[in-house]
Fold this sequence. Notes:
This protein is mainly alpha-helical. About 70% of the residues lie in helices and about 10% in strands. It folds into two domains: about 1-75, Winged helix-like DNA-binding domain superfamily/Winged helix DNA-binding domain (Arc Repressor Mutant, subunit A, Orthogonal Bundle), CATH 1.10.10.10; about 75-110. It has a two-stranded antiparallel sheet with strand order 1-2. α3 (about 35-40) crosses α4. The termini are far apart.
Amino acid sequence: MSELKKDIIEFLKILADQTRLDILDLLYQEKRTSSEIQSTLNKSQSTISQHLKVLVNKNLIIFERINVIKYYKIKNAEIFKLLVEIRDFVAKINQEKLKDLRDLDVIDTLS
Length: 111
């Protein structure tokens, strides 16, 4: 397997986590501290810390230190374009699946 494929798989695994997607959503509007993220998501400090570390290590978010407080923010807003594309693609697949199921129901009814 090529290095690029491995990188793509790793990247998709990062996006395949609800907590990490929730963190990205929170950071869409404004920078936040880990405490704010923890409080909003109602998750433990260690859970949020682990997810923030993953997102920082994969270059999706960065932090800036103001005095002694770290504020996390999105590094590249392009991630949201990608997430919208994924959402739209999944919605389209689901609509096609429902249409196929309805078509099968009609065929079964007529048979």
